[in-house]
Design brief:
elongated, about 130 residues, 4-stranded antiparallel sheet, 2 helices, Jelly Rolls, alpha+beta
Length: about 130
């Protein structure tokens, strides 16, 4: 009887530990949960320059669900996070977005960090939107 009770306690402890681990998954601040409704919060057209003329597209916040960037006739490079000399987009760094492309950056993957950009080859106008 004592072995059965000990085994039962061990099994319950393991089961509760696994359930607790599942419930307390780490979610990034501002991350989108599955099934979260998205409402368009801001949208604008932004002119971005070449490498020497970087432009902040989004500031860091904790309430975004996704961010959308659409390029027109020229490609762009994006940088995620607080801009520094090593994280600014440049000719060999940054997230490349081809010309005439729309990309949605889901907050559950990318977070709601600051985003800056510049035109890859030439100055261009892009459209940006943030959903909350």
């Amino acid at each position: 009887m004592n072995k059965i009770l000990t085994t039962l306690i061990i099994v319950l402890t393991i089961a509760l530990g696994l359930m607790y681990t599942k419930v307390t998954q780490t979610i990034r601040p501002g991350a989108a949960q599955n099934g979260t409704p998205a409402i368009l919060a801001t949208t604008s057209q932004v002119t971005i320059g070449i490498a020497t003329d970087k432009r902040m597209l989004f500031t860091e916040n904790t309430v975004c669900v996704s961010r959308v960037v659409s390029t027109s006739g020229q490609a762009a490079l994006l940088s995620f996070g607080v801009a520094t000399s090593t994280t600014d987009p440049g000719p060999t760094t940054g997230y490349y977005i081809p010309a005439s492309t729309t990309i949605a950056f889901d907050a559950s993957i990318w977070g709601c960090t600051a985003v800056s950009a510049y035109g890859y080859i030439a100055s261009t106008t892009i459209t940006i939107a943030e959903f909350r």
